[in-house]
């Protein structure tokens, strides 16, 4: 049994962990990229934690950095909390309910203030193509507010790149996504980059990943709206 699946004997909670096969495949590669993007002590905010797999496997390796989970779908909360409990690493935080299409990502005023210009790294794995385009718009706008200056937004997933032939598996995946929900679909990297740019997030690096996915690293290069207004 891998170390992170050893039950925390102090916890009497039911095991409600769910496991995502794709997260179990990609987490080692994602860890390799994001470990170099965070300070030893800082704050990482995970948008769309899903089952909680990434938090429980990557999170402890980045301690004492705080890993704040979040999720849109309330039905995933027990799994995320159960992963956190079983992992028993002091740096993992229970999920906030986040809907990136809503102002302030639907966080309450106190949380919005707590995170405002305070996050070192925001991660968002496999959400952009499995949500409406408005989710990408809201993700970028919120990231611009919540990241520290020089903080990073990390996206992982499939994207369509100009001048690079799209893998057949991604073309098929795109068709199946749109059949499931006409608002979903694999996005063009240049469209995502433009929305980021509109929010003062600069695409710094594109890293090819296994299974025709990409890691995208966006950096917040300017002062955010609130910081700028406080200087006026
Ligand atoms: C395919 S799952 C990926 C989950 C996890 N990141 C992973 O890689 O296993 C897509 C995720 O997008 C999230 N999502 C969809 N719409 C959202 C929204 N409006 N705000 C925040 N998250 C959203 C879902 O709740 C879900 O966690």
TrEMBL record:
Residue span of region Disordered: 1-22
InterPro entries (alphabetical): DUF938, SAM-dependent_MTases_sf
Superkingdom of origin: Bacteria
Taxonomic lineage from the root: Bacteria, Pseudomonadati, Pseudomonadota, Alphaproteobacteria, Rhodospirillales
Pfam families listed in its UniProt record: DUF938
Bias (Polar residues) ranges: 1-12
Protein name: DUF938 domain-containing protein
Stored SUPFAM superfamilies: S-adenosyl-L-methionine-dependent methyltransferases (SSF53335)
Record field: compositional bias (Basic and acidic residues): 13-22
Source organism of the structure: Kiloniella antarctica
